[in-house]
Amino acid sequence: MCPDLCNELRTQYKRVYKLFNPGLNSKSASADDFVISIATDGTYSIKIHGKTWLNNAPTFFNANNVTYSAANKTLNLTQASASSGTDKLGPYQTTSFAYRLMDAKMTRITAVIKTYPALPIVIFQQVIDVTCV
Q1: Contact 109, 132 (CB under 8 A)
Q2: Beta carbons of 84 and 44 less than 8 angstroms apart
Q3: Hey, which of 13, 58, 118, 132 has its CA 20 to 30 A from 34?
Q4: Which residues on adjacent β-strands are paired with residue 115?
């Protein structure tokens, strides 16, 4: 774990928190004010200080100049899973969503949401299974 980086992230969070909540003392900021809700169907939301900051949108991927989406049934969610671990920022949790494109190669794409319970951080990733491409 990298204590200097974690301390810097906490300091930056307090600064941003104070910008969004100017009437409050920055010492009142906590990771509890940064709440991420994730469901196994791929939906999620992020709330900052009890206010919705980001909601998911309909899931889609663009590949080979074609848009694949759950809405038109060209994108299928095949699995949702969770895991946890530790990296330089500290303990984290991931929720992964495995999708299959309904293309000639049946391409697989995994969308990952990585959160750090002790830090106000969320990382969104997309991983393409290159063995299918």
Answers
A1: no
A2: no
A3: 58
A4: 93, 122
